[in-house]
Each structure stands twice: as structure tokens, then as C-alpha cells.
Amino acid sequence: MLPVAPAAVAGTAAAVGVDPLTLVDLLRVANQPGFERWREQVRRTGGCSDPIHLQGWTITKDRTTAETLYAYSTQSEPGGRLRVACGNRRASRCPSCAWTYAGDTYHLIRAGITGDERKDVPTTVRDHPRVFATLTAPSFGPVHNRPTAGRCRCGTLHADTDPVLGTALDPDRYDYAGAVLWNNHAGQLWQRFTIYLRREIAARAGLSQRALADACRVSFGKVAEFQKRGAVHFHAVVRLDGPDGPGTEPPSWATVPLLDDAIRAAAARVRVLVPPAGTHPERELRWGTQVDVQPIGALGHEELTEQAVAAYVAKYATKAAETTGTVDRRIGELRELDRLDLPDHTRRLIQACWDLNPDYPDRLLARWSHMLGFRGHFSTKSRRYSTTLGALRQVRADYRARQERQTRGLPDIDPDTEEGSTLTLAHWTYAGHGHSPGESWLAQTIADEIRQNRELGRELRAELVTADGTGEW
Length: 473
Fold this sequence. Notes:
alpha+beta; 5-stranded antiparallel β-sheet; 4-stranded antiparallel β-sheet; RepSA_streptomyces; 15% strand; RepSA; globular; 2 domains
């Protein structure tokens, strides 16, 4: 690469919107002999922001003759490494991999609402009672908000983007300890809710819990979302099936109104007691009074459509507590707070986690302080709700494997025995992760190009959908 004057670098960097050091590294990467292969690797990861670097080899041999049919080694790759997608679900960490995760979540949730024979969920589930329920946290003190009528308690009519929304009106009187303890026990609250829900359904059907299991099954898929005030709440698709799951018809008494009533009653019954510790008194944790239950439309007469529910759940499956202004990584020690640019409300929640940690060591509050105390899974489902994320990933992996075998001219694997006439040997080791500054900028441009092509394809498909709405073209 020819030397470039510092002034020229600075001017060019300003023109393209990058800092000079990034531009110098970008030029270095672009002038390397293996640049095109590096770009192909990054494109295959979808423009991953933090790819995993692997070193190793793979050999495919004929089982009968031991002839080598294909051989690959990372020694021929740029830097002697193969880059693969990180697979992180968080949009703040890797938008590209988060998009894939959101897509998988969308198909998982939608399959449980509309059915999908390819995912072992019959389409008859559309006729089962299904609702979209939201369970929220209680109040820990008044916060700045945008009420449906009138102004905030502070007297201001806040804009949607006002950063004070969700923050305490009086921080000195806000129950920060209660907020983080509630987040920390939210998983237990949900678990008890599912237990009480089955009891409430059984009571309304006039059955014992054992008899209910022989007549009806409760299935759900849920996702957690952080409100601006830093309290987690849950959105869930709840469905009533027959005793053997989605393939069996629910009993005649299983209706949407019954399910609606049972959800509200179960949420009101749940209690989780936190024992006293140190100077902290015993606490009784409950769900908030705002429980929303909406029927999911199958015939189009309900406002909440099946696609809207699946898209909503998928959207929040890639979010975490960083939507409240916190960080998306663990905080190793409390003094790190001094180096972080955090909103005061969020900082106080994190501080509360560390203050409470000595008195509740089993709750790992300091370890999960970056999550404001929440330590549960953001996306979960019951066993028989629909397919699994693992199954969806395996389908994608099998498809790519078939493509690779066809490209290399290798025989297909027998679908019955899951074996073929070839034997593959491989050895891989971890060799690092991430991009240099210049690589990161280039990877982002690749990810943007992929996203734009994806959106264009979506628009073209929408224009080509037939008038009867079948989606065939």
C-alpha cells in the first residue's frame, strides 16, 4: 500500500464519516491479497459484527475406497482463519445475528398460532382458544409518563422521545430495592402463574387438576420486555389444546372468555415471598394490576392479527435491558459505574443490585446488575407449544450442508439412515473473535447491503402477491 499523507487521510476520513485510524485500517484491509475472500467470508456470516475465528481442517473421504473427495484447511484463508457468525441474539451486540434470531422466534411463535405442518403443528390450532396476554410489574413509585389523557404528574406533556420518561419523579422516595428484587424474581412469578393458571382453568371447568390433564393442555410462548422504568414484563401467547397437545381438539368448555378470566384470576393470586435479610424487611412480590388479555384473530374479526402477534414477540426477543440505557455486558466491579455514561435512574437500579448483593448472595444480584437484577430467559415456551429454536437452526444447517455437498459434487446423505457413502473428519480450534476497526466498518456496509436487498425483496413479494391473498406468485 502506498503511503498516504496524514492531511489527506484526515480529509478523506471526514468525507466518508469515519475517524482517520479507522480509514487507515480500512485501506490496509482493502489492499491485502485475500481481501475478496475475506469479504466473501463476512458476507456468508450476514455481516456479523463480532464473528468467531476458527482454525483447522476438514477432509471428506469415500467410505469404501478411502479416496479423498474433498479437503479444506484454513491455512489458505486470509490470516489463516475462517470466520463464522457469532449467533448473539442481542441487537445491541450484533444486528445481523439478532435479525436471524428474531426471524426464528417469529416462525416459532407464528407456528403455535396458525399451525405449520412442516414444524409438526397442525393448522387446526387456529380454531383453538388463543390469547395474547401481558403481565406487568407493580408500581415502585411514580415516574414520568404520557397518560392517555392530560399531562404527566410533573405538569409536562412529554414527547415520545423524552429521555425522562420512565424515570422517578422523586428518586429519593422511589423503591429501587423493590424494583430490582422484583426483576430478580420475575421468573419465579411466571412459573407460579402457570401453575395457578391451570388451577383456575380446572376450577372453571369443574374438574380436578388431574382430570384437567386428561382433558386439556395449556401451551404458551412468551417473551420478556423491559419497560422504560427498568421493570421487566412478559408478553405471552397462551393456547388451550386437547390432552395430547396441538394435534387434539380442546374440550367444548375451553373458550377464549374462560381463558381470559382464568389468566386474570391466576395473575391476581401469585405471591412470592422474599425473606428478611440484613436491614431489609420481608417482601411480598406480586404482578401489577395492569393485566391485558386480547383474543388473537383467526377469522379476521379481532383486531389483533396472528402475524402482528408473532412480529411483536420476535421484535422483543432481541432486546434486553440496554433499552433502558444500561450496558449490554456484565459489570465486574461497582467502580465501573464511574466510567459508564448512564442515566441516573438506571445507575440507581444498578447501585441497588450491588447494595443488596451481600444480603441476598444466592440471588446473584451484582452478577446480573447490568440486567437490573433480571436473570431469566427472554424467550421461553412450553414443551408442546410449537417447534424449537434448535430445530429451526438444524433445518437451516441441513439446508446449507446440502448446498455445500452439491457444490462440491459429493453424494447426498441417506435421509433414512442419516449416513452416506462418505466419511468426514475435522479438527477445529478457537482462534479469536471480532474485527479490526477497518474490518468492522466494511462488515457494517456489507450488513447494510444485505438488509437493503432483503427489504427490497420483501417489497417485491408484497407487490406480486395475488389478489386473493394466497401469497403465490
